[in-house]
Structure formats: C-alpha cells, structure tokens
C-alpha cells in the first residue's frame, strides 16, 4: 500500500486478469455462442432444414409425439418430449430403454437413451439427422470444459470467475476517469491505443460484465459454498433436505411401477388445463414416468418465456385417468426466487431475439475486453526490452510465453470454432461417435494453432491465423449452400430462420477477423519501416537515435 490505494488496485487488476485471462477468453467465447445454441444446433443438422416453420398447435404436436412413442417405445420406463418453439421447428423425443435381460452386457450411457425428431406438421419422424453435439458443446465447454471431470472443471472455471470479478471492480477503482475515457480512442498511439480499446470495451458493457460474472458464480453457489446448508441441516437429512425445502416444487420421489398395464389418457386436455392455469402460457416440455402402467404420471413444464426466473412451474397429472395430481412452483420462497432470477439472467433464455442479440454483442465486447487486456500487458512489458531489441536481442521467456499464449487463444480459438462447423459438414455421416469426432477436430485445430503460436509468436503468425479464421468463417454460408438441402435463399423464404441468421453472423465474424488481419499488416509494415530506419541510422553516426516504439514485435 506504500504506492497508494489506487496503485495497489492497478497491480491487483493487472495480475488478476492476466493469470486467468486465457481461460476467461475461452469461457467468454463459448458462453457468448451459447446464447444461440439452439440455432447453432439447427444449422448443424442440415437434414432438418426443410421442416416447415408454420406453427402447429401444441396439443397436435404432443398427440403426434405420444403416438410415435407408443409405436416405438411402449415398454420404456420414461418419455421426454420437447415441443416445437419459434427457435426450433421440430419436436424432440427422448426415451430411456428398459434394462437388458440378465446375463447380457449392460447398455452404455449413450445406448440407454433413444431419440427421434418429429415433424409436427406431418406427425412423422424426420430424416435421421446427423449425430452432433451442436450448440450444446459450447454451452458445456464454457463451464464443464472437456477431457476432465466436470467437478474439476467447474472449480477451475469458478476460480477464474472469482478472479474476473476482482479484476472488474479493481478496474473500476483504478480508472478514475473511466466514463470519460469511454468516449476517448486515440488510434495509432501504441500502448495508449491498446488502453483506450480496453477501456471502451470494458465500459461499453460494464453492467453486463459484472452481471454475467456474478451470476455465473451464483449458478454453482452450492458447490462453491456448501457449508451453510451442511451446518443448518446437519441433523435433518443434509443438503438433500435443504434442496427439498428451498426448492419445493416437483417432487423427486421415485415412482414404483404397479406392474399392471393401463392405457394412457389423452394428453391434449392436460395441456389445455395447464395452459389455462398459467394464464395462457404454453407447455414447453412433457415428461411421462412409467408410461402404459397403472401408476403412470405425466409432468408438464411451462415453456421458457419473458419470465426472468429460470425455474418454471410444473403440473402433474395421473397418466391413466388424466386427473390433476398437483401444481408446483407457482409460488416460490424469496431466496429461491432470487437465485432463480439470477440464474435466468445468466442464461438469457427469457429474451426475445433482440435481447439475445444484445447479450451476444455484449459477450463479444467481453471477449475484446479480455483480449485487449492480455495484449496491453504484453505491449507494456515489451517496452522494458526496447534497448535489448534495438541491439538485436530477444525478449525474456515470460513475455515470449505470454505472446504465444495470446496468439493461441485470441487468434487460435476462432480457427478452432470455425473448424468445428466445417467438420460437422465434411466428416462422413457413418463415422463412429460422430459428435465426439467433431469435438476432436475442434481441439486438434486449437492445439495446432497454440503450438504454432508458442513456437513463432510473430506478427506473421498473427496474420496467418487471423486470416485462416476469417476465411473459414466467411465461407461457412458457401459450405452450407453446397452441403445442406436448404441453402440460404430457401431458408430466407421459410420465415424466421436460424440457418439464415447463422450464415449472416458467420460472414460478419469473417469480415471482423479480416479487419484484424489488415490492422496487423499495417502494424507489421510500420514495425519493419522503423527497424529499417533504425538500421540506416546506426550505419550513419551523424543520425539521431532511432525511436523505439511499443508496436515493434507486439
């Protein structure tokens, strides 16, 4: 504290952001993409692009889903139905398969789950869509990472989010003219330009940055801080008793089959009763426990809508008689509702396309904020090696490591994300475990760019990787036109289309990366001209000393 409180906060801001900056950049990129994970999944299943976007009554879609499941999964212990929405035109059906007979090998986790996609207009199963994780991969990546236990990953991401929260508030304290600096950008000023860019992208969406970081921690608060419920409910069932009381709603008691076959009641009257109870709100998901059994129970969950709260109310019906068992979640306790609202704010599923677009742009601003912060540290640190560089020396190992990590994260991650989409269209359809093969392509591409960045953290490498990312993203609409049954023009005639929006955003991202290539090329030429002038003045003893700029090698 000898340098003053503000200077101490500046030190804290620098190191709390730098140490976890590369993980945070990945989290921001994947999380930002997750706002449109449904649309990404639709684009990655071109077999479904021809589905009609005409709205079909929920009751008709539900009855068709029941009919399909009765034909293909009548002996299943549980059905799951996701009804069509404005964002996805198909009904998605899942069911658990009954356990195999004794003496036979057990089913794997993937084999235990059956699935089908239903065209709600015809009631028939759509053409078998290719296996893919789609947008769900990015959603899981931003907090579960990959290739490691989810518990470890969530602790790592949570620790990085805590560092991020410290960086945000210490940054506010550090910049006493933070809002004035928001309206200031001085181009071609080296370190000053990087600082201005960092300030603008930080202040532009500052409420969003603080909200998304804090609510991200809230979503896993009981994992990070479990001690309160453990202590308060030590003698009454532990944390499970706490959850049952705090989030009272849909009972989690395991139903036992009666062992007596019984026909299922029509589902349409159940949907009508639930919608009327929720003042006209639609049903989003249907779960059927023990179908075709005397103890069958149908659970209806309200569709996501403008309500901020993540937890949606449910209604349970007797699956045989159709009578109402109970309504749950209509009223929640204040603490539980607060957490649910914060959870909903983080996911952003309550928003219409405009709101989610604003969240998406704010997320991109967060990506730029983290990227400019990492680059700013490298630019400032390089100034310490100005004399060494002038004499033909090299920078220290720490700066070279940061340069390589910056390159692999900031330029390499867009290449990997684009490669994920290209792999979705170019891998053979009969590849075993195709969804995981797409993810492998993502990490192979990212690993290759990271290794190249660590080996040669030069401006030429920055150009090459940014140019590759720009090319891959800009050509995705062309790839879709040649590998999908519904090209862009057809998608536009179909009404609001996730496919058309994906193509347009991909092309815009390609243009943005191409602009970054142009900026790096201009910087490279300026650096080369400075070095040439410096060499010429060194050969001429009467020339004044060369000016070493912060752009050299950064």
Describe the structure.
The chain has 554 residues and is an alpha+beta fold. 58% of the residues lie in helices and 8% in strands. It has an eight-stranded antiparallel sheet. The longest helix is centred in the last third of the chain and has 42 residues. The two termini are 31 Å apart. The C terminus is likely disordered.
Write the H/E string, N to C: HHHHEEEEHHHHHHHHHEEEEHHHHHHHHH
Number of strands: 8
Based on Cα principal axes, name the global outline. globular
* End-to-end CA span: 31 Å
Supply the helix-strand structural class: alpha+beta
Strand content: 5-15%
Computed over alpha carbons, the radius of gyration is 27 Å
Give the uncertain stretches in residue-range form: 486-496, 541-554
Query: How would a textbook summarize the main sheet?
Result: 8 strands, antiparallel
Strand order of the largest sheet: 4-3-2-1-5-6-7-8
Mean pLDDT: 85
Percent helix, as a range, is 55-70%
Q: Helical region count?
A: 22
């Amino acid at each position: 504290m000898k340098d003053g409180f503000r200077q101490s906060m500046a030190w804290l801001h620098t190191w709390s952001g730098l140490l976890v900056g590369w993980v945070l950049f990945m989290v921001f990129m994947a999380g930002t993409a997750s706002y449109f994970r449904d649309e990404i999944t639709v684009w990655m299943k071109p077999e479904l692009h021809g589905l009609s976007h005409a709205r079909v009554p929920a009751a008709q879609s539900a009855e068709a889903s029941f009919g399909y499941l009765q034909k293909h999964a009548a002996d299943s212990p549980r059905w799951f139905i996701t009804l069509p929405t404005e964002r996805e035109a198909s009904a998605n059906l899942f069911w658990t398969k009954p356990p195999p007979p004794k003496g036979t090998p057990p089913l794997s986790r993937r084999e235990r789950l059956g699935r089908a996609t239903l065209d709600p207009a015809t009631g028939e199963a759509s053409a078998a869509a290719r296996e893919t994780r789609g947008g769900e991969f990015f959603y899981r990546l931003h907090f579960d990472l990959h290739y490691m236990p989810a518990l470890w990953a969530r602790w790592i991401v949570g620790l990085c989010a805590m560092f991020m929260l410290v960086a945000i508030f210490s940054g506010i304290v550090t910049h006493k003219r933070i809002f004035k600096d928001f309206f200031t950008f001085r181009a071609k000023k080296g370190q000053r330009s990087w600082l201005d860019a960092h300030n603008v992208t930080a202040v532009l969406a500052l409420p969003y940055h603080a909200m998304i970081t804090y609510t991200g921690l809230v979503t896993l608060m009981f994992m990070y801080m479990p001690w309160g419920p453990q202590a308060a409910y030590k003698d009454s069932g532990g944390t499970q008793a706490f959850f049952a009381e705090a989030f009272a709603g849909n009972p989690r008691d395991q139903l036992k089959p009666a062992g007596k076959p019984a026909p299922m009641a029509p589902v349409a009257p159940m949907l009508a009763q639930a919608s009327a109870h929720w003042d006209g709100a639609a049903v989003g998901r249907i779960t059927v426990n023990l179908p075709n059994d005397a103890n069958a129970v149908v659970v209806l969950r309200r569709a996501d809508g403008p309500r901020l709260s993540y937890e949606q109310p449910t209604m349970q019906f007797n699956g045989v008689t159709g009578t109402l068992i109970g309504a749950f979640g209509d009223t929640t306790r204040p603490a539980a509702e607060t957490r649910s609202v914060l959870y909903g704010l983080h996911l952003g599923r309550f928003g219409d396309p405009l709101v989610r677009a604003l969240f998406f742009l704010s997320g991109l601003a967060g990506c730029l904020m983290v990227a400019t912060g990492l680059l700013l540290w490298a630019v400032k640190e390089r100034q310490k090696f100005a004399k060494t560089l002038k004499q033909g020396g090299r920078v220290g190992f720490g700066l070279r490591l940061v340069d390589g990590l910056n390159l692999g994260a900031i330029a390499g991650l867009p290449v990997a994300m684009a490669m994920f989409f290209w792999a979705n269209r170019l891998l053979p359809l009969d590849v075993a475990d195709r969804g995981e093969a797409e993810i492998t392509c993502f990490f192979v591409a990212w690993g290759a760019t990271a290794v190249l960045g660590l080996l040669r953290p030069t401006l030429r490498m920055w150009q090459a990787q940014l140019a590759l990312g720009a090319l891959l993203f800009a050509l995705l609409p062309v790839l879709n036109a040649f590998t999908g049954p519904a090209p862009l023009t057809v998608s536009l005639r179909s009404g609001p289309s996730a496919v058309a929006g994906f193509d347009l955003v991909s092309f815009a991202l390609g243009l943005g990366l191409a602009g970054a290539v142009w900026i790096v090329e201009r910087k490279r030429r300026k650096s080369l001209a400075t070095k040439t002038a410096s060499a010429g003045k060194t050969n001429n003893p009467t020339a004044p000393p060369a000016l070493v700029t912060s752009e050299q090698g950064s």
